[in-house]
Amino acid sequence: MLVKSRRKHRPGVRNSELLLMLLSDQPSLMTSNFNQEGIILINIFVQDLDNQVHEIQSREGDSLMEVLRKHEWGVAAICGGLCSCGTCHVYLDAEWLDKFPPTDPDEQDLLEVFDTRQENSRLSCQLRLQAKHDGMRLIIAPDE
Ligand code: FES
């Protein structure tokens, strides 16, 4: 993510002070972690089908599905994110639901055919992670 600031370069201002000034323009970034390339890191907590909770780290802009399918306990995501298989189905903790855009008609249609659908169901392939999702908790839905 590129952070632009309207602040001008100030001779004598150290980089760390400049970084704090930039972050103060972006309050959501103040609590974020960054890697050495300056990319925002997001920690999420995932409960697998064996009820084991894993803390995993992702980067801002990652597809939640891509993050989850890297793990053997994660999602299958057999259609690769085309919103046609439903094997990336997850349940988001209620407090995180409104931190993502609402379901679009294709996602809604696919979720409606699942007996395992709940109010907090989402297809992880339709969700992109942002700094505001740091600390999110979710559960991998059982296979249909
Ligand atoms: S990966 Fe197939 S619907 Fe999400």
By CATH, the architecture is named Roll
**Cα shape:** globular
Identify the CATH class.
Alpha Beta
Ligand list: FE2/S2 (inorganic) cluster
Beta-strand level of the residues, as a percent range?
15-25%
Cα separation of the termini: 37 Å
Structural class comes to alpha+beta
> How are helices and strands ordered from N to C?
HEEEHEHHEE
Number of domains: 1
Would you count the extended β strands for me? Answer: 6
Q: What is the C-alpha radius of gyration, as a whole number of Å?
A: 18 Å
What's the average pLDDT?
86
Helix content: 10-25%
Total of helices: 4
CATH superfamily: Beta-grasp domain
Low-confidence stretches: 1-7
Kindly identify the CATH topology. Answer: Ubiquitin-like (UB roll)
In short:
By secondary structure, the protein is of the alpha+beta class.
What would you say this structure looks like, in words?
This protein has helices at residues 15-24, 64-68, 94-97, 105-112; strands at 33-34, 40-47, 53-59, 89-92, 121-123, 136-140. It is α+β, with helices and mostly antiparallel strands. The protein has a single domain (40-140), classed as Beta-grasp domain (Ubiquitin-like (UB roll), Roll), CATH 3.10.20. A hairpin with a 5-residue loop joins strand 1 (33-34) and strand 2 (40-47). The N and C termini lie far apart (37 Å). The model is unreliable at 1-7 (pLDDT under 50). Bound molecules: FE2/S2 (inorganic) cluster. The site of FE2/S2 (inorganic) cluster (FES) has 13 residues, from loops.
